[in-house]
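Morning run. Coffee first, then this:
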Amino acid sequence: MLENKTEELAAFDAKKDELIDALSEWYDEEIEAIDAGIEEGVPQGDAGTISSCGPAIDSKRVLDASAVTKKVIGIDVPPKIIRKGGYNDLDDLVSHLVPRLRKVISGEIKIPKKKKNKKTKVSS
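And here it is:
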């Protein structure tokens, strides 16, 4: 990342559309994978099913979007900014996540640094 916060935010803003496109592609692939697990011909009903009661994509699965965010803007999706329970659709995910990613870059949302594991020496 760049040293200057103003430059970092300008870089984020310049890549925002690319980020949204990449998240959209990722989201579509995730939803397709979820839908592939539902067998065709199984009655779904219209009164509501278990799968229709929850979010389209759950919060744990959103962590996988880190591959996208890391590639486009250089950071992982911090678990702290993901809505508990998940997102109902792509617009819900983008409108919640993208502004929070910007706030992480600006420093408005503080994310603790990962602690490095200390290696212990084994004596002979």
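Residues 5-37+50-106 form one domain. Good start to the day.
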